[in-house]
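Researcher: Next entry in the queue.
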Amino acid sequence: MNPYESVPPRGFWRTAVADKNMLDISGLWVPKFRVAQDSRVSTYGSCFAQHIGRALAARGFSWFRPEERPFGLSDDNAAKFNYDVFSSRTGNIYTATLLLQWLKWAFGGAKMPDEVWEKDGRWFDPFRPNVEPGGFASKDELLQARAVTLEAFRRSVAEADVFVFTLGLTEQWLNKAEGYEYPMCPGTVAGTFDPQVHQFNNLVFGGVQSALQDALKRMTTVNPGLKVIFTVSPVPLTATKSGKHVLVATMQSKSILRAVAGQMADRRSYVDYFPSYEIINSAPFKGAFFEPNQRNVAMPGVRFVMDTFFGSQAETFGVRGQPAGRAALNSQADLVCEEEILAKFGGQK
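Model: Structure for this entry, 349 residues:
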C-alpha cells in the first residue's frame, strides 16, 4: 500500500487529461466556498476580469456594482463611459500593487494624489485615463467623479460577500518622486511621458506576494467575513518594456502571478484560486481558445471558462444560476482594455 493508491482519477494525467477529449476535461476546480445567487460579488482586475461580472449578471447572480450607471444610459454608452465594466469605475486594475494602492486610498494609508492631466481644454485622470471618452470638461468635474468612484470602490470591498480579482501584469509605471503607480504608461492613453518623472518597474515574486498579503489584510480588516477568489488573466501581454521577447516576458509575468495567487489560496481558508489561466493556456487545450492573433480569447474559450466556474459551484454546492444565452458574454474585442492601445506603438493593427 502506498499513498498514490488512494489518489482519485483526477490526480493522474492519463485518466484526467490524456484519455479525454479536451472539452471533457473536468474537475479542474473544487471551490472552497459557496457563491450563492444572492452573494454580493465584486469584480476587478485586468481586461479578462470583465467576463466574470457579465457572466454573473447573465446567470442571475448578484454582481455588486455600487457605482450605478446614470438613469437612461444605454448599454453601449455605459461601456463607453466605464459603467458596468467593474464594480466601480476604476478602470482596469492590472497589478497587485495597483489593487493595494486603491485599498490604501479607500481605507487609509495613502491620500489619492492630486495629479491631473490637461490637453486642449479637456482633463484626464492619470489613475483612470480611459473612463471618460475625450476627457472631463473641467478639473472639478474630474475630481468629483474620482471621489464618487473612490467611495463606490470602498463600498464594493466593505459590503461584498465575495471579491474576485484577476491578476494581469507585473510590469508597472511609477511616479519616481512620489512612488505612486499609474495603470498605464503616461503618454499612451493620455498624458505626456517624462523620463525624469516616470519610471518603469517589473515586479518580482516577492513584490507581488507582499502587495497581495497587504491587500488581503486590509480587505479583511474592514470586512472580516469577506471571501476572495484570485484568477490570472490568460491573455498575453500586448507589449513589454522589459527588454525581453514579448513571449518570454509574458511567461515570466504570468508564472509569477500564478505562483503567488496559488500560494495565497493554499495558505488561507478564505482565499480560493480559479484556474482560468490554465483552461486557456494549458497544452491539452492546444491553443484552440485563442483568436487567430494568438492573444485574444475567443468566445468558445470564454464560455468554457465561465461554464467551468458555475458548473463547479453547482457540482460542489448545488448552486445553479439561470442559463446564460450566447449573447450574454462579449468577445475580447468588446472589452474595455487600455493595454490594447499599446499595439499601435508597434505598428500593429
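Model: The chain has a mean pLDDT of 92.
Researcher: Noted, moving on.
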